[in-house]
Amino acid sequence: xxxxxxxxxxxxxxxxxxxxxxxxxxxxxxxxxxxxxxxxxxxxxxxxxxxxxxxxxxxxxxxxxxxxxxxxxxxxxxxxxxxxxxxxxxxxxxxxxxxxxxxxxxxxxxxxxxxxxxxxxxxxxxxxxxxxxxxxxxxxxxxxxxxxxxxxxxxxxxx
Length: 159
Known about the structure:
alpha/beta; Transcription Regulator spoIIAA; six-stranded mixed sheet; 5 helices; 6 strands; 46% helix; 24% strand
């Protein structure tokens, strides 16, 4: 987790999430809680996701980001932007179907976020439910995702 950091900030309803390092499922509960607070703000205007400094994004993180994009579109009628300059991250985002969810930008996001988003202690069951939700979201994006994550979701649901 030392190599994983998420910074978050806002200015006048415009939010930025900056994912750095190898971002893993340990951040899923903190991300979900941030999304809930962000959407509850009366002056919410936009959200940008910056993965230009990410070295890896696990499938749970990708599912949480997909949930963010789907919720943004459903509640506010627009697609959030995602910034990526790494060809391997770009391929991952493309393979997961993020071009249908996000306004994908192949450039740096020159916005400095104000604070670290700390990991939140969560029970094993709470994390398991977030992992299931994230992977179900990914499964709904395309047939390849459905095939890739179906057995994982079935295994986790059986626990």
